[in-house]
Amino acid sequence: MNARTTAEWQAADAAHFLHPFTDFQSLAKKGSRVITKAHNIYLTDSDGHHILDAMSGLWCVNVGYGQEALVEAAARQMRELPFYNAFFQTATPPAIELAELLAQVTPPQFQHVFFSGSGSEGNDTIVRMVRRYWDLMGQPQRSVIISRHNAYHGSTMAGASLGGMSGMHAQGGLPIPGIVHIQQPYWYELGRSMSKDEFGLVAARWLEEKILAVGPENVAAFIGEPIQGAGGVIIPPTTYWPEIQRICDRHGILLVSDEVITGFGRTGQWFGCETMGFKPDLMTFAKGVTSGYVPLGGVMVGERVAKVLIETGGEFNHGYTYSGHPVACAVALANIQLIQDLKLVEHVRDDVGPYLAEQYAALREHPLVGDAESCGLMAALILVKDKTLGTPFPAELELGMVCRGHCFREGVIMRAVGDRMIIAPPLVITRAQIDEMMALIRRCLDLTLADAVRQGWMA
Ligand code: PXG
Question: Ligand 1 centroid to 164 CA: how many Å?
Answer without folding.
Answer: 13
